[in-house]
Amino acid sequence: MKLMLPKAGTLKPNNEHDPLPHYYRPVLGWIFRKRLQMGLDLLPRDGTRVLEVGAGSGILVPTLTARFPDYTGVDLVLADGLQALVAPGCHARFATADLLSHSDLPEASFDAVVCLSVLEHIADVDGAANALARTLKGGGTLVVGYPMVNRFMAGCFRAIGFSNIEAHHVAPPVAIERALARVLRPVACKALPPLAPVQVALYRCTSWTKD
Hints:
Elements: H1 28-41, E1 49-53, H2 61-67, E2 70-75, E3 91-96, E4 110-116, H3 125-135, E5 136-147, H4 151-159, H5 173-183, E6 185-192, E7 203-209
Parallel strand pairs: 1-2, 1-4, 2-3, 4-5
Antiparallel strand pairs: 5-7, 6-7
């Protein structure tokens, strides 16, 4: 599944911290797009229903709605105009939702769940992992992505204007993966750069399944 990046100017940021402009920059844009592609590469080839947690500005909406005929996108804040990004033939719905609220997301309903660059912002990572697992059907696939925590990554964030990234990234990768491993079975992992040690890795995507 290849990322279908919407034309520049089509999307609207959903908040002041939305990295949307970075996806369209010459060099930095490749890195931001690559992390999305890593997540897409881990999605299953079958299944009809997908949930995107952290839909935000809608950057993945064209790609996911072209692959899955039934799409649900949720976030704490959603940008305007998301419905216009939906591929023809897909039944899509968008809603504001809190991952930690049991009543906001349906249970055992989705063949695939995509959650990129969300979990690092949630202190109650065990609660978030439980909520994600609850939404999956048996045999379903969860794909999560999160930035690594190291000096190199912090320096990269400072270079693009995030001087206090630690205030936003409250759950480190090791905590995220431990929480997910308590409720789901790990399947695969991709890192940026590939095979990079944790000291210099920028981003990691992992997939998990519900037995």
